[in-house]
Amino acid sequence: MHLALNVTDIGRQRGGNESYLLGLIDGLRSLPVEGDRFSLIACREGVNALSVVANPDRFRVIDTGPYRRWPSYLWQQTQAIRHAQADWYISTFLLPPIVPCRAAVLIHDLSFRAHPDYFPRSIALYMRVLVSAALRRAEAVVALSEFTRREIQRFYPWALRKTVVVYPGIDRAFSPAGDGSDDAVRHIYGVAQPYLLAVGNIHPRKNLARLLTAYEQLHSRRADLPVMVWAGVERWGSDALRTHAQAAGVQLIGRVEAAHLPALYRGAQALIYPSLYEGFGLPPVEAMACGTPVITSNTTSLPEAVGDAALTFDPVNVDQLASAIERVISDAALRAELRQRGLDQAARFSWTTTAAQLMQALRQFPQRVDS
Q1: Are residues 233 and 310 in the same domain?
Q2: 3-state secondary structure of 105
Q3: How many CA atoms lie within 13 A of 96 on its CB side?
Q4: Going by C-beta distance under 8 Å and a sequence separation of 6 or more, which residues neighbour residue 179?
Q5: What's the CATH code of the domain at 39?
Q6: What b-and-e string marks burial along 69-87, b requiring 16 or more CB atoms within 10 Å of the CB?
Q7: Helix axes 16-30, 282-289, angle to 10 degrees
Q8: For the chain, how many structural domains are there in total?
């Protein structure tokens, strides 16, 4: 089978979307050679990052030139698919109006439908229109979790019959043993132990405002509270929160290179991930793979990701969040228990498994499905 994969999010600092695609490519590379071939449709910004996987026998990179916004972006994809001459084309969220082969769409989450208030009105609107169109055109829909599959059933029930669940994986670099450079990596960002870590864009659905309130509550009664470190880029509407966080002593380190994340996880007393809505939630699993205790929300897809290996709380209850943080920083036995459970849970997720299940899922659609 020849699969064309839209990887234009690579090289554009697209957070979880970019991490997913890089991991998936790594998983595809690890599969046994069975005649499968892959075309990676990349914009100019991502071509250099993909040069290491170029292999004329199995992989090729199709350079579409500088990234363009839609609708030019969608036409650019159609031209690249024609050039690839693939059996399947898979893209994240959106599909071009014309797809000259069988098409699959990858759905990370449906937050723009469930909580349009998290986004500027224009973004929520165009995502609603274009994702609905993509789901109708797709012959296969790939959801990252059972929760996302249920959300597809909730908002697009007619797409459920062509939806499969394929969990993401985590990179092998996320492990409890580093290469001895962790201190140097943390020094790059000015981070010193002890610290608590939050990873993710500064965005309303990441629930960092409530995390800040919980942190301030604890700070008022505990002189030994570790510093809070936020790793992530600012998104729309984050200026006031950023200013408040800095005033409260939170250390904002901005975007972190993917290769540096394991060192930050390993050095943290705990990862705190209070998100209100996730399609899967990779950071908690990555932190677990590094042996870091995790405190996270008990809603949406996060229980699937963390199992019984994290301390969970109601994400709208600030007192529960503050209590969970205090328990973890005060109880060494609890941290050790969470560490072991987390390592066991994280071992369930690998990009090789993700890639194999994705290819198997596409092969299960032998005939075209009418929407």
Answers
A1: yes
A2: strand
A3: 20
A4: none
A5: 3.40.50.2000
A6: eeeebbebbbebbeebebe
A7: 60
A8: 2
CA distance 123 to 131: 12
368 is a domain residue: no
Give yes or no: residues 322 and 356 share one domain. Answer: no
Q: Dump pLDDT digits (tens) for 17-31.
A: 888 999 999 999 889
Question: What confidence tens digit (pLDDT) does each residue in 262-290 have?
Answer: 999 999 999 999 999 999 999 999 999 99
- Cα–Cα distance measured from residue 338 to residue 218, given in angstroms and rounded to the nearest whole number: 21
Say whether both 122 and 216 belong to one domain.
no
Structure tokens at 60: 């090729």
> At how many degrees (to 10) do helices 16-30 and 351-363 cross?
80
Residue 66 sits in the same domain as residue 99 = yes
Distances (CA, A) of 278 to 69, 107, 108, 111, 275: 25, 12, 8, 8, 7
Mean pLDDT value of segment 126-136:
95
Residue 363: count other Cβ atoms within 10 Å of its Cβ: 12
Is 166's pLDDT higher than 90?
yes
Q: How far apart are CA 184 and CA 260, in angstroms?
A: 10
Residue ranges with strand state E in the chain: 2-6, 37-42, 59-63, 88-92, 102-107, 140-143, 163-165, 195-199, 227-231, 251-254, 270-273, 294-297, 311-313
- Note every long-range contact of 45-48, with CB atoms under 8 Å and residues 24 or more positions apart, other chains counting: 45/10, 45/11, 45/12, 46/7, 46/8, 46/9, 46/10, 46/11, 46/12, 47/11, 48/11
Per-residue pLDDT for 72 more than 70? no
* 152 and 267 fall within a common domain: no
Report strand pairing: 251-254 vs 227-231: parallel
Q: Which residues pair with 228 in a beta bridge?
A: 196
Phi, psi of 273 (to 5 degrees): -130, 85
Residue pointed to by tokens 């580093």: 178
Range of the domain at 55: 2-169+351-363
- Dihedral sign of CA atoms 49, 50, 53, 54 in order: negative
DSSP letters spanning 177-246: ---S-HHHHHHHTT--SSEEEEES-B-GGG-HHHHHHHHHHHHHH-TTPPEEEEES-B-TT-HHHHHHHH
Segment 243-259 mean pLDDT: 91
Q: What is the CA radius of gyration of the chain?
A: 21
- Is residue 339 assigned to a domain? yes
Among the listed residues 214, 266, 206, 263, the one whose alpha carbon sits nearest the alpha carbon of residue 230? 206
- Amino acid of residue 54: A
